[in-house]
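Could you help me review a protein record that somebody else here produced? This is what I was given.
***
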Amino acid sequence: MNTSFGALVRHRRRTLGLTQDQLARRAAAQGTTIDVPTMEMGQTSMHERSTLEALATALEWNVGILVVVSGLSSTSPSDPLTPFRHDAKVTYLRAVDQIEMVREEVAGLRDLHKVLQLWRSELAQRVQSLSSTTNRQQDTDA
């Protein structure tokens, strides 16, 4: 297994807000024992489809994604499609990273929107307060 697979698993786990232990327990519920820290460091191999299926279920993901990214779908190193599979993996991982960046930007924009709403509310209260003060001064002056 390569580190890109481990990085993909780690990214998905974090996106779901799971700890390594929680992911391991989810996989265990599917009847598979997975050493999540070792897997995320790219230091273990996934040779069985059943393990990938359990991991996909634990990650709430399509097993096809993990099969392709893990390299299990490649029949041999001399497979003429291997370079295309590699390119697809790289493209996919870049897309995942870009999607996560967009999600973070959207979250930041939502936070900014909330701040702007608070400022707008405070400004409206200040304008109302100044208007009331001005009206009272005009009433006392008259």
